[in-house]
Amino acid sequence: MNNLTDIGYIKELLGRHNFSFSKGLGQNFLVNPSVCPRIAEMGGAGKGVGVIEVGTGIGVLTKELALRADKVVAVEIDERLLPVLEETLSEFDNIKIINEDIMKVDLKKLIEDEFEGMDVAVCANLPYYITSPVIMYFLESGARVNSLTVMVQKEAADRLCADVGTRQSGAISVAVSYYGTANTLFKVSRGSFVPSPNVDSAVIRIDVDRKYDLSAEEEKFFFTVVKSAFSQRRKTLANSLSSMMKLSKEQIISALSECGLGENTRVEQLDMEKLILFSGVLRQNIQ
User: Fold this and answer.
1) What string of pLDDT tens digits covers the 287 residues of the chain?
2) How many angstroms separate the Cα of 180 from the Cα of each of 10, 131, 167, 222, 232?
């Protein structure tokens, strides 16, 4: 078995395949041998589990997932990596590589076709520039996924896992908390990659549990409120929502009052329960 974290082997392998790193795709390949086994273990790969991997690199994490899970479907956008993966993962018969942009994949169909009778986990070392879009694509899809375990920029990890109602939280923190429960598993230093990025990373896990039972209309209005409020988070809710949603300040202040909140309340002061309550009252008041 080739050592996929040995820098000498990686350079030789990529040289043979005339592969060069793409800054546009945010490619940084893991060379720290301890990281991928931990992601696979803590990400839920095991018997009876099918794993969707987003972005393969040269297959370091793919291999660790395939050693544990029943099946791995890896979605890799860079077709230049296909011959590399054919070599590095040749010993496995439980891996399927799909050369596609994950944002264009029908996730429900993929899971239905590939993972019948299995629990489904998602594991990924995400390029920093697509962290939030990919996570939200999975969460909003309604696809049958138990958890997402992803490595992201540490600053993004802090935001994704922030408690709603704290200064660290943002619209993405609210969205993640709406669909599941997020926790940081461990940090990964920038020296763990080739080429080395300019920032440290962290691995987080989101357990998808959908604790809140809103109708489609209520959910749509809730996220409109959240996005509008956080787009001008330094303003009070009365000012930000009147500006972004074209509502009267009186309507907003009245809804705040019904929820036991003052007219100078800002969005970052509200936890999930208060946000959902306020959104529901405001929606009723403007209908």
Assistant:
1) 568 888 888 889 888 988 876 666 556 777 888 999 999 999 999 999 999 999 998 999 999 999 999 999 999 999 999 999 999 999 999 999 999 999 999 999 999 999 999 999 999 988 778 899 999 999 999 999 999 999 999 999 999 999 999 999 999 999 999 999 999 999 999 888 877 778 899 999 999 998 898 999 999 999 999 999 999 999 999 999 999 999 999 999 999 999 999 999 999 999 999 999 999 999 998 98
2) 37, 16, 20, 16, 25
Q: Does residue 187 share a domain with residue 228? A: no
Conformational region of residue 142, where left means phi above 0, alpha means psi within -120 to 50, and beta covers everything else: left
**For residue 162, what is the DSSP state?**
P
Are 75 and 159 contained in the same domain? Answer: yes
Work out the number of other CB atoms within 10 angstroms of the CB of residue 100: 13
Task: Tell me, yes or no, if the pTM score tops 0.90.
Answer: yes
* Structure tokens that stand for 65 in this block: 């997932």
How many domains is the chain partitioned into structurally? 2
Residue 158 has, within 13 A of its CA and on its CB side, a CA count of 8
Phi, psi of 68 (to 5 degrees): -115, -40
CA dist., res. 180 & res. 178, Å (int)? 6
> Where among 208, 237, 258 does a domain terminate?
208
Q: Which amino acid is at 102?
A: I
**Of 199, 174, 161, 197, nearest to 268 (Cα)?**
174
